[in-house]
Every structure is written in structure tokens, then in C-alpha cells.
Amino acid sequence: MSIVPSPIANLPWRLMMLVTAIALFGITVLYSAASGSMTPWALNQLVRFIVFAGMALVLSRIPVSLFATYAWPAYGAIVIALILVELIGGVAGGSQRWINLGFMQLQPSEFMKPVIVLAVARFYARLPVGEVRRWNAIWPALLMIGLPWALVIVQPDLGTATMIAAGGITVMFLAGLPLRLFIGAGLAVAAFIPFAFMFLLHEYQQKRVLIFLDPESDPLGAGYHISQSKIAIGSGGLFGKGFLNGTQSHLDYLPEGHTDFVFATMAEEWGLVGGALMIFAFLLLFRWGLRVSTRAKDRFSRLTAAGLTTTIFFYVAINLMMVMGLAPVVGIPLPFMSYGGSSMLTVMLCLGIIMSIAREAKSRGNRLL
Question: Disulfide engineering: 268 pairs with which of 29, 96, 232, 245, CB 3.0-4.6 Å?
């Protein structure tokens, strides 16, 4: 008989060790970015990680059926909150994204990233399999995705709106909708891009796209971020300049080196080897999430686990492409590495729900880790 209580022994400790390793590496990078100081970033990041990791473990003990039951009510509540943002939300940096609750600033759009996956997964889980390829299987999901996307895009917050759309559409794809629909939609979006660029994007968003296409056109202005990011990554070489020896971040050449461009800060000091190990750790995380999906006990669980894993993947992929100049700068942070509470909260919500699905699958005899 084990002296460790069963509920504690059955927690996904190997997964938490992996996530903790990534987070501690991120805290180490933030410590270096502050020139060898735990303040103002590293200590706060450590406290947030401990709190949100505890929250994820609590979520892992909640039955999956409760997530399914409250998926649509949660979706409705967040849509109402997004409408309130437009009516009474606070404005900062030219964007209206927050509701002031007095003791904290609430950003409802962050919660919509995991909830849109739950809501769309709930819809397809309730839909008879024979109905999946009909029009009635398409328009309700598009409406569920389109409403919060539109409310977020007018804030304006292109990065978060993109994540919401990507998460919802991924679940639609995984639900088994015909591939031709996604190909047709992709072609339609491509044809719509020039119109959207001219009439829907704000001036600063248009500038981001133009700088993405030609960063050297304004190296000291709008293209400064990406130019300095490339310099930092390239100067790191194979093994990096060494811990606390980065110059781009320490001399303030690299803007946002502790948030959106934290990967460039890391790559300068830890080099290609450090970057490859970090990416490998994320790949292990994605592998775990997809294994949970394939072994889940029902359709809702499978779609939810895969959709939430893909949401985390989009965080990582978009951020890495952004800092390497392979995508426009849209303000997507790198999970567990970038300083900030909103993105860590969202990712931990995703992990907590996936762990709940994994726990129920394991209770049926499926080994996931």
C-alpha cells in the first residue's frame, strides 16, 4: 500500500514536470533580460506559474461532463462580456480590450480561446454523425466562431481574433467536415485579403503586413522590431553568447524582449541548441495532447483535447514565425516564456481541461504518458 494518497499519486506528474521545465527556463530568460534581477519580471512570472499550475491541477479533477454541460453557457457569458468591453471597456494603447473590475483588469477575449473550442466541440458532439456533411452542420459553428471574432477584431486585436478563429475552425475540421469546404474557404479568404487590407485593417495593422513583406523598407521605424529580432537570433549562433551575456536585449536594442520577442532574447544567449531543446519540449507537450485526444472516451472529449492542443500549438507556431520574420507581428506571446498573466492563464486552462480528459481515459485503462 502506497503512503502517497491516491488522488495525489494519480496526478499527471510527468506532464507537470515537462511544463515546469519550460516555465523555469522562461523565468531564467526573464531573469537575464532584467540584467540578472528577479524583478520586475522573473519573480512575478514564477508566482503566476505556481498559482495557475495549481488551478490546472484543480481543473484536472473536474469531470469532463461538467465542461460539456457548461460549454455553451460559458460561451454566452463571454460574448456578453465582449459586448460590455465595447460599451464600458477601458482603452490602453489605442485598444479597447479590458473591463475594470476594481481589483483587476479582465480581458474576456483571452477566455474565449479555450471556450470557443469547448462550444464548437459540444455542438458537433451533439450532432448526429450522418448530419456532419450537411449545411446544418456548418452555419451554426460559423456563427459561433464569427460572433466573438467580430467583437474582438473591432477592439482591435488581430492576434486574439486569429487565435479564436483558428481554434474553432480546427474543431470543425476535426469533426469531419468535407475537405473541399476548407479548400474553398481558403481560396475565398485569399481573394478577400486585398479588400480586407484596404478597408478593414487599421493603419498600424496595414503597416505590420507591409513590414512583414519588406522589413528593410523602414528598419528604424515599423521594421525595427523584426530587424533587431533577426539580429539577436542570428548572433546567437550554435551555442549562444552565454547566460547574461546577450547584448541586443541588455542594451535595449530589442524591443519587447521579455514579452512577444522573448524567443529572440533566449536564442541570443542560448543559441540554436537552446532554441531546439525548447521546441522539442513543446513538441512533447503537443504529442501528449494528441495522444489524449486519440484515447478519449467520447466525441466531445476527442474534439476538445485535439482543439485545445492545437490552440497551444498556434501560440507557439505563430510566435516563432513572428519573431523570425515569417509572419506579421500580431502580438501572440510564447507560452510559459513570455512575461504576462493572460496567456499563461489561457494555456493553463487548456492544459487543465486536457488533463481532466486524460484522467477519465486513464480510469478506463488507457495509458497516456
Answer: 232
Residue 12 CA, chain-centre distance (Å), reads 21
Tens-place pLDDT, residues 113-140: 999 999 999 999 998 877 777 888 888 9
Q: Report the SS3 class of residue 258.
A: coil
pTM for this prediction: 0.90
Domain edges within the chain: 1-61+202-369, 66-201
Condensed to tens digits (0 to 9), the pLDDT of residues 199-227 reads 666 676 677 777 776 666 666 666 777 88
Coil vs helix vs strand at 100? strand
CA distances 49 to 14, 42, 305, Å, are: 17, 11, 22
Q: Please name the residues in contact with 314: beta carbons below 8 A apart, sequence gap of 6 or more.
A: 163, 166, 167, 332
The span from the CA of 82 to the CA of 106, in Å, is 10
Radius of gyration of the chain (CA): 21
- Cα separation, 355 vs 11, in Å, equals 9
Spatial distance between the Cα atoms of 115 and 350, rounded to a whole number of angstroms: 9
Tens digit of each residue's pLDDT (9 = 90 or more) over 275-313: 999 999 999 999 999 999 999 989 999 999 999 999 999
